[in-house]
UniProtKB/TrEMBL annotation:
One of its GO terms (molecular function) is kinase activity. Keywords: Kinase, Transferase. The keyword Transferase applies. Residues 23-298 form the Carbohydrate kinase PfkB domain. It holds the Pfam family PfkB. Belongs to the carbohydrate kinase PfkB family. PROSITE patterns: PFKB_KINASES_2. InterPro entries: Carboh/pur_kinase_PfkB_CS, PfkB_dom, Ribo/fructo_kinase, Ribokinase-like. It comes from Candidatus Niyogibacteria bacterium RIFCSPLOWO2_01_FULL_45_48. This is Carbohydrate kinase PfkB domain-containing protein.
Length: 313
């Protein structure tokens, strides 16, 4: 195990159709259907494995396992090529539907996300601790919601940690700051960054000191415009995006693949965050590689589908 990732995991039904096929008002013909694993944490773990790393996924699932999504998840999880540990703590396993229109092309995702049951929280925390995660393992929590904070705190008890928050978590500043106190790197998009800065009364044009919340670095992704890095004591610096090669089939999961690429480059460098000099040029290199992976991912359909290590060379 090189990277421990939690906690978003769910089955996803992918439905492909062509809205321009046939005469007007004709019954829509489904071209293909498939069920696959999804969820931001599962996507990151899948991407890490495809890039040649050894992830371990901690996936939140329903505590009672009696619904159709549990059957679907049991089926698709058999094809996972990496180790994973189910944490049965949700009121119900999450589920997603990805609709892909070949004529547009466009894609729409609808879904339901489960909530962590309070009476299952401590059991989940104990399960994480019992896995004996070594201090050298990078710990990653993606799309963390307010109900998942206790589990993320258990995962982040030591070592190098990376957090991507759910936008909802930014409305609960006390819990968000508790988690940031154990976070080495915060990765979010510019909308989430703006939401947080507004809540703190900080103008977008002002650089703010990240030292008070314990972070080593903040990475803000800005879609096709690349992103920026902020490190305490070092001015913000932009990193560029990479032009997609080939037809764009799906934008879903690009951020997850960026994160996996970033972590892969970090592991391959052999450097630790605590040893980086100012300015940390390696951090820039990791972000650029992550952007390269994300650009390649756009030519794959589905959030959990993307390039292998050989495709990036």
């Amino acid at each position: 195990m090189e990277v421990a990732v939690g906690f978003a995991l769910n089955p996803e039904l992918v439905v492909e159709y062509d809205s321009k096929q046939g005469p007007p008002n004709a019954k829509l013909k489904i071209l293909s259907t498939a069920v696959q694993t999804a969820g931001s944490s599962a996507n990151v773990a899948t991407a890490l494995h495809k890039l040649g790393r050894q992830p371990h996924l901690f996936g939140l699932v329903g505590a009672y396992g009696e619904y159709v999504e549990d059957i679907l998840l049991k089926h698709v999880s058999q094809s996972l090529d990496f180790e994973w540990t189910p944490i049965p703590a949700l009121n119900r396993t999450g589920f997603a539907l990805l609709r892909v229109d070949r004529a547009n092309p466009s894609e729409k995702v609808i879904g339901r996300r489960g909530e962590v049951l309070k009476n299952k929280t401590e059991e989940g925390r104990c399960l994480i601790r019992s896995c004996g995660i070594h201090d050298s393992v990078i710990r990653v929590a993606t799309g963390v919601s307010i109900s998942e904070v206790p589990l993320a705190l258990a995962l982040f008890e030591r070592g190098q940690t990376i957090l991507t928050p759910n936008a909802e978590l930014l409305n609960h500043l006390e819990e968000f700051h508790r988690l940031l106190a154990r976070t080495s790197i915060l990765v979010w998009n510019e909308n989430e960054a703006d939401q947080y800065l507004r809540s703190q009364g900080i103008k977008k044009t002002r650089r703010f000191n990240i030292h008070f919340i314990g972070l080593r670095a903040i990475i803000t992704t800005m879609g096709s415009r690349g992103g920026k890095i902020q490190v305490d004591g070092w001015a913000e610096r932009l990193f560029s995006t990479q032009r997609p090669t080939g037809r764009i089939l799906s934008t879903q999961g690009a951020g997850d693949w960026f994160l996996a690429g970033f972590i892969t480059a970090m592991l391959e460098s052999g450097e630790r965050l605590s040893s980086l000099a100012n300015p940390p040029e390696s951090l820039m290199d990791w972000c650029v590689f992550g952007a390269k992976v994300a650009a390649k991912k756009l030519s794959f359909l589905g959030s959990g589908q993307g390039p292998s290590r050989g495709d990036i060379e």
